[in-house]
Amino acid sequence: xxxxxxxxxxxxxxxxxxxxxxxxxxxxxxxxxxxxxxxxxxxxxxxxxxxxxxxxxxxxxxxxxxxxxxxxxxxxxxxxxxxxxxxxxxxxxxxxxxxxxxxxxxxxxxxxxxxxxxxxxxxxxxxxxxxxxxxxxxxxxxxxxxxxxxxxxxxxxxxxxxxxxxxxxxxxxxxxxxxxxxxxxxxxxxxxxxxxxxxxxxxxxxxxxxxxxxxxxxxxxxxxxxxxxxxxxxxxxxxxxxxxxxxxxxxxxxxxxxxxxxxxxxxxxxxxxxxxxxxxxxxxxxxxxxxxxxxxxxxxxxxxx
Length: 305
Prior knowledge:
Layout: H1 3-30, H2 39-49, H3 56-66, H4 72-93, E1 103-104, E2 107-108, H5 110-113, H6 116-135, H7 143-157, H8 162-175, H9 181-206, H10 211-238, H11 241-244, H12 250-254, H13 259-263, H14 265-281, H15 291-302
Antiparallel strand pairs: 1-2
Helix pairs in contact: 1-3, 1-4, 1-15, 2-6, 3-4, 3-9, 4-6, 4-9, 7-9, 8-9, 9-10, 10-14, 10-15, 14-15
């Protein structure tokens, strides 16, 4: 690794670590410990959402918002909201009815640490609370901006987004028939990509950015999300559970549809590299302000967890 590349990597690592700490602090405020009968639910929500994870989606929100001088408090609320939705999706993904995992972010999954019913409720509550946060005036004084954030996140997470992608994934697994590259791309765009697209676009929504800049960040997020999913599948095929902080090798065992399974390791890596180059190209209009976003695109395919 060259001195310049190493310095860039360290700069991104510091920025992501600082952002993750800020996001965790925001989540701790927005998900306070509760006393009384609801306390176990809040405990499960906090367990799922606070601590661990790269906070890639939240980091995208913060960096997008920084391009348009959005207040840090507003950006952190949106970053926390999207991390709540992401956490909810992981809680439900890990359930026995879905992927049946017992390890997530290096610790027992929520249904193992608590129980299945509590895990379902914690996921439901995280999702609904995320939209409460977006709808509150502290997120943005303009109700039209708040409504747009709610609209875009709900679309990214719903039947034409993350939930729809999960359904396609389940149907493909049950059918046992291999999907072609186009079908796998659509599945992964919905399941993983749409939420990352929203995270990249959210800062522009907060900053009431010109449409051209908003579309550039959306396109960046689209290519980044596709590269991220391929990288995730590569990790599942090549690293240990200890490195990844979750069970690995399960995609191949379950016969899941992935580009790695279809194209092989080398061609899948090349595809991820092409997507990263495209993602960085969408940032040409942001000058040096977009450097961390460019570094993040490279990090997506270099990470080991």
